[in-house]
Amino acid sequence: MMRGRSDGGQKKRLIASFCAVALLLCLVYMYYGSSNQGASALEYGRSLRKLGSSYLGGDDDDNNGDNKQDGSVTSEEDSLAVAKSFPVCDDRHSEIIPCLDRNFIYQSRLKLDLSLMEHYERHCPPPERKFNCLIPPPSGYKVPIKWPKSRDEVWQANIPHTHLAKEKSDQNWMMLNFSNDVLNDEGRLRTVLDVGCGVASFGAYLLSSDIIAMSLAPNDVHQNQIQFALERGIPAYLGVLGTKRLPYPSRSFELAHCSRCRIDWLQRDGILLLELDRVLRPGGYFAYSSPEAYAQDEEDLRIWKEMSALVERMCWRIAAKRNQTVVWQKPLSNDCYLEREPGTQPPLCRSDADPDAVYGVSMEACITPYSKHDHKTKGSGLAPWPARMTSPPPRLADFGYSTHMFEKDTELWKQQVDSYWNLMSSKVKANTVRNIMDMKAHMGSFAAALKDKDVWVMNVVSPDGPNTLKLIYDRGLIGTNHNWCEAFSTYPRTYDLLHAWTVFSDIRSKGCSAEDLLIEMDRILRPTGFVIIRDKESVVESIKKYMKALHWEVVASEKVTTGSELDQESEDGERNVVFIVQKKLWLTSESLRDTE
User: Fold this and answer.
1) What is the pLDDT of residues 302-340, one digit of tens each?
2) Cα–Cα distances in angstroms (integers) from residue 301 to residues 304, 314, 484, in the given order
3) Distance (Å, rounded) from C-alpha 211 to C-alpha 287?
4) What residues contact residue 446 under an 8 Å CB cut-off, 6+ apart?
5) In the record, which residues are listed under signal peptide (predicted)?
6) What is the pTM of this model?
């Protein structure tokens, strides 16, 4: 009996040992198996092929006898690795905006106040939920129509929401009639903010008068209206008047505009109207078109009465009123604010508050007073357009920049832009590019150097450095704040050219992923569009390994020989390189079948 029990114990121990070994083997298999799956995720999930001369698949050069099935390499080879391919996102993600993705908001069960429009504000996914795939064009996609024809005509397949054109085409605009009958007031009216812009018809109308509008709308029930505007070649940006400040410095616009306006300006003590007040220049205008301006029913009359009282306490006056539109004007100085009765609401903002801090900063229900300079000069002191673009802005002093520094920066970038266009001369014609983004704009001199070309530039300034975006607006240009560790607030395929001056070095210093940034740049870049990367040689070499994976074609690569401030050598003597690539047009097999 005892021997029998001992034998049974040995069998149990043997079985337990066997199970432990089996479990260990399973864990080892799962670990290395998942690693292999991660490597194989670099392979396409769809077949791609060529049709005629249009690029519809992977690069057609072979692998030179290399039989590797994925991009995995040994650690010694990491710096020279060639990523073979990225996965293609599902077709339903052809319009994805990662930080404005409603599905992510719903799945994450974020507690947002819908009445405050928080669900239309930016909510970026964590690293583990970032898209690591290429966004496919929609079925039947074609290279966009060139400007200026695109202003009135776009490919239906590129913007699959034709009702937008019908819905927004009947908008009528009323503007101030200046005494000289010049719409831009002889260059004094240059930058405009169009809130709830539809498809930016107002912004398109103003372009011929040398007025540039930042057309702003949320990713709401009128889906893709900003995409429609950008497809037309008109400046536009996805944003909302919600709880956060708009991504623009104080005193950026001469005019704000809201047509068929359904925004509740009275909510939260007038905080949204006070946000417009913050971004308007001294003497700036707000053109407001809404039923409250002319309707006679009881509710509309109440709203109009309360809104009129609010703007009066804000020291705004009526500059013009016609039918359903009223135009208010801000004061030129702080005099009216100082003459208000004590305790008048809304109050003035705290003296230590920074009116130009905007990235992720909450709005405040207070009036932003003018600086001592603006109060004394009774205005912004800006030159009229186009002299404004090259005239040193008064706010240079905020950064300790001299007039000489500004003028030198302007001249240096003019030389660099000329050099860029020479390098791209075989690819770029007069109307090849229209929508351009400068991913690190500094003082906006890259954009200023393009003034003689029929283009517009979205100037991007990082919130981590000097907030020079106000200098850009003071030059009569437009832009926004953005951190390139996150996705940009725009639809896929909206820019013809991206300029990245040391952007990759910057995000590397923040510990962010260059691969994520490349995928994001590919998302917002149109097929056949260009990328100009100006960065350290080692950084550019690390980027080159992704060219085949992204289906980008090298146009030019040139070491920088100038010793200018733009390209200071690093401690180890490393120089910058100008690296220019072009994105090829590719389609998934599903899209290809639709085009056939």
Assistant:
1) 988 999 999 999 999 999 888 788 899 999 999 999 999
2) 5, 20, 46
3) 15
4) 413, 416, 417, 438, 457, 459, 499, 501
5) none
6) 0.85
